[in-house]
Amino acid sequence: MALPARTVLPLLACGLCVSSCFWLDNLPRATGECRGTHQGRRVRWPLQESSALVHRSEQGELPDTFIDLDYTPEDEPVLEGFGVDIHLVEDARVKQDRRVGLTSREAQLVPTESSLVTRWVGNIGSGAGYLSPPGVPVEGSVTLEDLTEFAAQGRFVYRYADGGELTCTFDVMKDVEE
Length: 178
Description:
This protein is mostly beta strands. The protein is built from one helix and 13 strands. The chain has one domain (30-173).
């Protein structure tokens, strides 16, 4: 027995909604990698899927909006992890490429302007900071290509005193566990 069109269409729409929600839940939350030269070696480190764009509504120790990026430094026995927390102004949005320079000051990288990126926190493994050697990058930059309430896409570049350079890309989605 055939069902009338007014019954079939709503059932079809519900089926498509359920399947699209399942498909969206199974998308990777983060993709990207770091490529370049680190301590004289060519490297290619993937971005961990747990990296995320975070928006917090409650005041606390962490900023309201930041991008948490964690890369897996494969074949680097002394480096447990490699990443950065990019602290942003509240409700930061970018619709076209926006580049912010980073400069070395007092054993850390700091943004050359704070109208978008307010703080830059490098991390290695579970702690904040930079591996010595090569130490704090001499300079760097971050380019945000797209930044919305739900996702952030871009890249950052580190240039080291020993001539090494890393370019790290990221495409992350909002943390769903906020």
